[in-house]
Amino acid sequence: MLKHYEISGTDFSAAGEASSNFKLILKQLGLPADIVRKVAISMYEAEINTVIHGGGGTCDAEISDKSIVISFNDNGPGIKDIDLAMKEGYSTATDTVRELGFGAGMGLPNMKKYADDLQIKTTPGKGTTVVLTINL
Amino acid sequence: MKLSEVKAILNAEFLAAETDDLNINTACGCDLMSDVLAFVKDQSLLLTGLINAQVIRTAEMMDIVAVCFVRGKRPPEDVIELAKKSGIAVLTTEYPLYTACGKLYEKGLGGRGSAQTL
Ligand SMILES: Nc1ncnc2c1ncn2[C@@H]1O[C@H](COP(=O)(O)OP(=O)(O)OP(=O)(O)O)[C@@H](O)[C@H]1O
Ligand SMILES: [Mg+2]
To answer: Nearest chain A Cα to B86, which residue?
Structure first.
């Protein structure tokens, strides 16, 4: 099954709608609770990043027999140093974003922790693609 | 601990989903959503001073069953509506975060790494 979502880069209150919708689908499919939780947390972190850092984009999620693969695409500023971005506590979030409760620099480490595989393709000035895989 | 006990200890008020007999196993006091997302526990209560929609979304992702806003804060109506839709109980207390957490801890509601949950 394939799902496609548009992620707004300006409506912060809508951030997380894709993850919320996809979580509901997984629950309805009767997938185990630990799988649903791994997907929900890693997908939500990636979705928030697409909003607050990527300026919005798209998300495609696919459920197959073996795995769930979710990719987020944006045309934002990209990530200059991925190793640095992966470090717990590293964040370039603005004060406005911090006031909303994000910018702890924990999102990418959380994605790595909860997804079975995390791939990041990024070009500074062009954009970022984050692919999360959760094995079934 | 039952949610009704939490409500009594914090002298709190329900804003959504009055479910007095809900079981609360652990609690977490935090204003950083990514820290909450790093913390996975069942039947948790989240105490926070933030009142935007992402608090409810975060709770939803984590299967957090109840959120208590501190320092008398009340989220906008659309945030309460979102909580209702997600089936998350919402309370508000006049106590600040530190005091609210301390009061619950003292009455035996542990958090991650506390004696109660070790
Ligand atoms: N899609 C993206 N586009 C551009 N930069 C990104 C993107 N995703 C992450 N980054 C960069 O990587 C940093 C670390 O991301 P991470 O998700 O770990 O932390 P954060 O989003 O800043 O804070 P938190 O996730 O704890 O709220 C970000 O601050 C940002 O500089
Ligand atoms: Mg992040």
So the answer is: A20
